[in-house]
Amino acid sequence: MPHVTPTAELDVRFSDPKASAADWSAAAAQLRDAEVFWLTTVRPDGRPHVTPLIAVWQDDALHFCTGPGERKAKNLRENREVVLTTGAPSLSEGHDVVVEGEAVRVTDPAALGVLADAYVRKYGPDWTFTVGDGVFVHEAGEALVFRVAPRTVFGFAKGDPFGQTRWRFTQ
């Protein structure tokens, strides 16, 4: 699958005058390498739900999994719009990345097999999944798998110079 190169824009309202739009390849590398993400979903009554989880960057999208009875899975049955966030726990250095998009179920056995391999490569053998009927299977049970292709991504450079870049994707 070809890699997507989004359009980058520096938001001068929230950026140092010395800043320039960040390079997408650095943000994509951070999404690939980050170990922990924060997933925001919306409860049926409209309240937000935020939880940490692990995810893999594969084929220009973030992928995560969850048990079918977990709050995030229940929320996604009603509203598939999500935000995934990762970053540095510092105010003066590093980069934060915020991905907005739609969480779409992955059920294709071949795609699930590729993602299962990606989890092991990134997180080690404790995260070994087999492929069941449209799901991951693990000793703890079944997990639904979701793909979030970015619609919009925000990058927040911290330190000197600080800056806010927005990348827009054409889907």
Automatic annotation (TrEMBL):
The keyword Disulfide bond belongs to this UniProt entry's keyword annotation: no
Record lineage: Bacteria, Bacillati, Actinomycetota, Actinomycetes, Kitasatosporales
Protein name: Pyridoxamine 5'-phosphate oxidase family protein
InterPro entries: F420H2_bilvrd_red/Heme_oxyg (IPR052019), Pyridox_Oxase_N (IPR011576), Split_barrel_FMN-bd (IPR012349)
Start and end residues of each Pyridoxamine 5'-phosphate oxidase N-terminal domain: 26-153
Pfam family name, one: PNPOx_N
SUPFAM superfamilies in the cross-refs: FMN-binding split barrel
Assigned keywords, A-Z: Oxidoreductase
